[in-house]
């Protein structure tokens, strides 16, 4: 049997969060449902250099305005494929 794939699509938004020390980071947050493979998981992005809250907000706004749904494909060789 060849490789089998399962693809799911979900809508996510980018939101700005802060670490305990105030450093901003961006969270990929499910919006109106989720991709089952990403349940109980967090996807975040640390920002380069001396990013400020304001620059993080600009980045999140840009991403939310220019990206669509997240597509997640898992192949049968992946340990979590079921």
Task: Write structural notes for this entry.
With about 80 residues, the chain is of the alpha+beta class. It has one domain. Helix content is about 15%, strand content about 35%. It is built from one helix and five strands, in the order ββββαβ. It has one helix spanning about 55-65, and strands at about 5-10, 10-20, 25-30, 45, 70-75. A three-stranded antiparallel beta sheet has the order 2-3-4. A two-stranded antiparallel ribbon has the order 1-5. The mean pLDDT is about 85.
List keywords for this structure.
single chain; 82 residues; alpha+beta; three-stranded antiparallel beta sheet
Mean of the pLDDT scores? 87
Oligomer: single chain
> What Rg do the Cα atoms give?
16 Å
Q: Count helical runs.
A: 1
Span of the ends, CA to CA: 15 Å
What's the shape? elongated
Q: What is the topology, as strand order, of the major beta sheet?
A: 2-3-4
Order of helices and strands: EEEEHE
What is the percentage of strand-forming residues?
35-45%
The overall strand count is: 5
Number of domains: 1
Low-pLDDT residue spans? none
Helix content: 10-25%
Main β sheet profile = 3 strands, antiparallel
Structural class: alpha+beta
Chart the SSEs and their pairings.
Elements: E1 5-10, E2 12-18, E3 24-30, E4 43-46, H1 53-66, E5 70-75
Antiparallel strand pairs: 1-5, 2-3, 3-4
